[in-house]
Write a structure and sequence with these properties.
Blueprint lengths: L7 E5 L2 E7 L2 E5 L4 E7 L2 E5 L4 E5 L1 H6 L5 H31 L7 H11 L16 E5 L4 E5 L2 E7 L4 E5 L2 E8 L2 E5 L8
Antiparallel strand pairs: 1-12, 2-11, 3-10, 4-9, 5-8, 6-7
C-alpha cells in the first residue's frame, strides 16, 4: 500500500501583550481648625437694707418712764376712776355705820381697815412681753443677669487631591504565522 503524501500546515496564533500601571488617587485633607471663645455670664445682685421698726412706747409706759405730759394725762384719767371708787367706798362705809343692828364696834373696824389699806393710784399700764412691737419689712433684691456667649470660628481646609494617570501599553507579543510544509516527494523514475 502506498501512502499519499500529506501537506502539513502549522498555524501560530497571534498574542497580544498588555502592560498596565494602575492609576493612583491620593486624597488628603488637613484637619479643620476650630476656635471657641466664650464670654462668661455675669450676675449681680443688689439689695437695699430692709427696714426694722421697733415701737417700745408701751413698754416705757408700763415702766412709768414716759414723758411728763403723757404721765399727767394718764394720772388725770385714772384720778376720775379713783374718785368714783372712793365715793363708792364712803357710801358703803356709811351704810355700815347706819346699820345699828350689826354687832361690834363698826367705827373701830372701819378705822382699822382704813389704816391698813394701801391706797393704790395706778397710772402705769400692765407690763407684758407684747408691749414691744417689732416689724421688719424686707426690700426685694434687684438681680441683673448678663448672658454669656460662645463664639465659634471654624477654618476649613480644602482637600488636596493628587491623581497620577495609569498607563496601558498594548503590543503584539507574537505575530500570527501560518507555515505550510509540502510533503517530501520521493519519485523515482
Amino acid at each position: 500500500m502506498t501512502t499519499l503524501p500529506a501537506i502539513q500546515i502549522r498555524q501560530q496564533y497571534a498574542r497580544i501583550g498588555m502592560d498596565s500601571v494602575p492609576a493612583r488617587l491620593s486624597i488628603r485633607q488637613p484637619q479643620a481648625e476650630l476656635s471657641l471663645t466664650t464670654a462668661p455670664a455675669a450676675i449681680s445682685i443688689h439689695s437695699e437694707p430692709g427696714t426694722l421698726r421697733i415701737d417700745q412706747s408701751r413698754a416705757w409706759d408700763a415702766l412709768g418712764m414716759r414723758n411728763a405730759l403723757a404721765s399727767m394725762d394718764r394720772i388725770h384719767a385714772e384720778a376720775r376712776n379713783v374718785a368714783w371708787a372712793h365715793v363708792a367706798r364712803i357710801v358703803q362705809q356709811g351704810d355700815r355705820l347706819a346699820d345699828l343692828t350689826s354687832p361690834g364696834n363698826t367705827i373701830a373696824e372701819i378705822g382699822k381697815e382704813e389704816a391698813l389699806k394701801f391706797r393704790e393710784f395706778n397710772y402705769l399700764t400692765e407690763p407684758s412681753t407684747n408691749n414691744v412691737e417689732v416689724a421688719y419689712t424686707p426690700s426685694p433684691p434687684m438681680v441683673d443677669v448678663r448672658e454669656g456667649r460662645v463664639e465659634t470660628e471654624v477654618q476649613v481646609h480644602k482637600p488636596e487631591i493628587d491623581y497620577i494617570r495609569g498607563k496601558l501599553d498594548i503590543y503584539v507579543a507574537q505575530q500570527a504565522a501560518l507555515t505550510v510544509i509540502p510533503p517530501q516527494l520521493d519519485i523515482k523514475v
